[in-house]
Amino acid sequence: MFKAVIFDLDGTLVDSAPDIAIAANSAFAPLGVPPFAIDDIKAMIGGGSAVLIERAVKAAGLPYTPESHAEILSRFMGVYKAVSAQGRGLYPGVIDVLVALRAAGMKTALCTNKPAPVTDIAVAALGLAAHFDYVLGASDRIAKKPDAAMLHDCCRTLDVHPREAVMVGDSGADNGAARAAGCKIVLVDFGYSKVPVSSMGPDAVISHLSELPPALKRLAAMR
Predict the structure, then answer these.
(1) pLDDT at residue 46 above 90?
(2) Which of 51, 20, 27 is nearest to 122 (CA)?
(3) Would you call the peptide bond into 117 cis, given omega within 30 degrees of 0 as the criterion?
(4) What pLDDT, on the 0 to 100 scale, is given for residue 83?
(5) Separation of alpha carbons 144 and 174, rounded Å
(6) Which pick of 35, 151, 175, 196 has the fewest CB atoms within 10 Å?
(7) Distance of CA 200 to CAs 174, 179, 194, 196, Å?
(8) Is 0.85 topped by the overall pTM?
(9) Using one digit for the tens of pLDDT, what is the confidence trace for 181-206?
(10) 11 CB-near residues (< 8 Å, 6+ apart)
């Protein structure tokens, strides 16, 4: 079997799009921008909060300047922290699969492009902190997914080789990071990907987190 499973957060373990929409709409409201729909927000997720704000600025037809971007991002982050503290949106089966993996002797980590301060708030509010050996949110010290750096950091911290680890995510960024790092990749088909995740060529696709343990067994048997 593999020694570690490294999870993405948004779109993989939690449906955070409603909270992100609240934060984004609050950030843009002072500019007279009509509220973004949930589907619009889902299409903007991926790459971190700064990228999301860039996409939202473009979608709203606003002029981009570094100063305006920083102002909007600041308002967004303030609300994002507050709504993330509510602990909403955990997908069914998350706790069960994390408990099962750790009971089987697997190490677990969280690796997300969500900003580290918001990640820590969300993980605590969702009751996930005790189920991970390591939690890594986005920061200026390390390149974000799809770069391999975050997964390499997780593997070093967990003391496993990348080929002994499996990334579980929902996006091209997760798929790209896993391939670049040398990890196996399992993608969920219920997240925020704009294209069918099967088209990315992952090692496995699952439709519910309860399907993860048997998928890991199949991948291990193929090694």
Answers:
(1) no
(2) 20
(3) no
(4) 97
(5) 10
(6) 196
(7) 10, 11, 11, 8
(8) yes
(9) 999 999 999 999 989 999 999 999 99
(10) 17, 45, 169, 170, 171, 188, 190, 191, 192, 193
Say which residue the tokens 């799009």 belong to. 17
How far from the centroid of its chain's Cα atoms is residue 65's Cα? 27
Average pLDDT on 101-121 reads 97
Residue 223 has pLDDT above 80, yes or no: no
DSSP per-residue codes, 133-155: SEEEEEBTTBPPTTSSHHHHHHH
Q: How far is CA 213 from CA 64, 100, 217, in A?
A: 45, 8, 6
The per-residue pLDDT for 47 is: 85
Q: What is the pLDDT of residue 136?
A: 98
* Cβ-contact 104, 1 below 8 angstroms: yes
Amino acid code (one letter) for 113: N
Q: Would you name the residues annotated as active-site residues? A: 8
| 3-state class (DSSP) for residue 25 | helix
